[in-house]
Every structure is written in C-alpha cells, then in structure tokens.
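Q: What residues go here?
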C-alpha cells in the first residue's frame, strides 16, 4: 500500500522523497528520472550558466517526464551574486510551480514565488531559521541535520534532536534531510514527525546521475568516516569528501591566525569541483558528500531505488505496528 503523507498530497507525488538541489548534478536527466520513479526531481538553477540556459533545461526535463518536478535556487554569499531574480522569473515563466530555496535572506525570493502561486520548500539547519521561513509563508520546510552534505550550519545539531524539535515547534509540514538513503531512514523520519525525506548523496550514486562512474564507485567504496568539514573557521561550514584538497584546506584553517577565503579560493574553486564529476578523479577538487555514504552499497536506477525505499519503509512501519499487543493495558503512572 503506497505511503500517503502531507508531502505526497502537497506535491502530487507517490513516494515522499525529494531529490535535493545539487550543483552540477541536478540536471534534466536526473530530475526527470526521480520524478518518473515517483519522487520529486529537482533542477539546480545555478548549474545552468544563465536564466536562458535554465529555460532550456526546464524544457528538456519536461520532454523527459510528465510528472511534477521543481527548481532549486540557493542564495550563496558572493561578491558578484548570480542573477537570482532572472533565474526565478525564467522558471516561473516556464511553468515551474515547485521551488526549493536555501541560503541567506530568502524573503524576496519567497515573496515572489508565493505571489505567483508556487509551492516553496525552504531548507534550514536550525529551528530559529525554520520558524522565520514559516513566517515568510513557505509551504514546507526541509530540516537539515548535522549529518547532511553541503552546508550543515554552525550549531552542529544532529537530525534526531533537530527533527523532534521541529515536531514541537513548527506548524507547517517539514521533510528530513541529512543521512537518508533507504526505507528504514524514511520510516524513522516519519516517526520523528517529518512528512518525507530529502536525499542528495544517495541520488548522486544512481544510473541517471550525470557524474563520472568512478565517482559513483568511490561513493560505494567509502564509509561514514570519509567526509570532513571545511570553512569552519570562516563560519561557513561545508561537509565535503575527505580528499587531499579538503585536508589541505583544513590544514590552512588550523594555522596560527587561521585562514581567509582568499587563501583557499583556488583550492575550492567550483571549476575544480566540476572536474571531479567530469573526469572521475576524486582528488582534483572539492566535492560535496554526506556521511550517508556509509549506507550506500550500490548504484541502481532511480526507479529501482525509490521502489526499494517505498517497500522497505512499508515493511518497517508494519514491523512497528506489530509491536502493539492487542488487549494489553498500558502501565498506570
């Protein structure tokens, strides 16, 4: 029996799983494959070099799937910021009605999307930021625990406590992000009050993922110990794969007096990171990965992956229901 949650009803999807926005990874072939498999595929706007290129990617995705998909727009700290407004308008004009937002000061973007009748899922790493986004009128929150790849925030709060706190504090639906790869994880997220999960690293390691097969193989070979945090001293913490470049960045940060971004800019350039995915060399640059690598043991199609997650979650939920003993009275307090 399919799982029905607030997320599946809100988005019109079958499986309560969202493919998170990922730079260089969130492209039409993956987004369409996730949506075709029953989840919500996400195009990453900033993977495209311009708003017009995003228009083309949306049209390509629409050729590949008849199901809902969304667009991620992440607001990044930058001296020369991208044309966020241009990306947002292009996506709305192309008929996209589901958006994943993340980053600092999302208010204007959220206001624009809501004025256009769109559904907004906003990513947060703290309850404080989640409540702020709730006040801005978002429809759903993506709660990122300390386990997540990319930017886990600066407060180091693990998913179990963060999700339970969300159940206490939030009035709108939320999904769980960070450390999810299978049906057991989905069932646990639902038990903690979430209405679904967001997965990034797990979708990197699928047949339809656009990254080099050697990187997919590296993910399968790796464990939960193979990530490291960089930019901690710059208060812009990021969880990335623990390779030579990442450890060089950490060493620079640990020098007396620390490091400025200028000291590490060349090491962490986005173009070097892109080469990792294109050339299949895991050590050529910085690349994002979560500790969930410890749970990833294969590289299936998105259809096989989501069908398996759906089945496993149903089995776990059934096992939990079987723990209830009919007719047995609860202990009196």
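A:
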């Amino acid at each position: 029996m399919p799982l029905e949650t607030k997320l599946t009803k809100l988005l019109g999807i079958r499986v309560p799983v969202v493919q998170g926005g990922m730079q260089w990874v969130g492209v039409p072939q993956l987004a369409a494959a996730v949506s075709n498999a029953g989840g919500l595929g996400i195009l990453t706007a900033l993977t495209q070099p311009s708003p017009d290129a995003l228009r083309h990617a949306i049209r390509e995705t629409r050729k590949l799937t008849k199901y809902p998909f969304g667009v991620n727009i992440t607001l990044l700290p930058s001296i020369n910021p991208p044309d966020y407004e241009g990306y947002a308008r292009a996506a709305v004009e192309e008929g996209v009605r589901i958006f994943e937002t993340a980053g600092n000061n999302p208010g204007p973007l959220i206001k624009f999307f809501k004025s256009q009748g769109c559904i907004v899922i906003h990513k947060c790493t703290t309850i404080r930021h989640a409540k702020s986004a709730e006040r801005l009128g978002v429809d759903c929150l993506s709660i990122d625990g300390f386990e997540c790849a990319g930017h886990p925030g600066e407060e180091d709060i693990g998913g179990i406590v963060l999700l339970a706190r969300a159940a206490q504090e939030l009035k709108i639906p939320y999904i769980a992000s960070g450390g999810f790869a299978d049906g057991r994880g989905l069932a646990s997220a639902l038990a903690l009050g979430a209405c679904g999960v967001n997965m990034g690293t797990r979708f990197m390691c699928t047949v339809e993922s656009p990254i080099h097969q050697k990187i997919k193989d590296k993910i399968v070979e790796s464990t939960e110990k193979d990530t490291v945090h960089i930019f901690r001293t710059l208060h812009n913490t990021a969880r990335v794969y623990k390779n030579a470049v990442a450890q060089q960045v950490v060493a620079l940060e640990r020098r007396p007096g620390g490091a400025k971004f200028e000291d590490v800019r060349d090491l962490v350039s986005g173009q070097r990171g892109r080469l990792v995915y294109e050339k299949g060399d895991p050590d050529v640059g910085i690349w994002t990965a979560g500790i969930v690598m410890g749970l990833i043991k294969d590289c299936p199609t998105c259809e096989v992956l989501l069908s398996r997650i759906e089945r496993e979650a149903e089995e776990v939920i059934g096992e939990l229901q079987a723990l209830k003993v009919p007719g047995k009275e609860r202990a009196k307090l």
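A: Context that may help when evaluating the design: The domain at 8-210 is CATH 3.20.20.70 (TIM Barrel). The mean pLDDT is 95.
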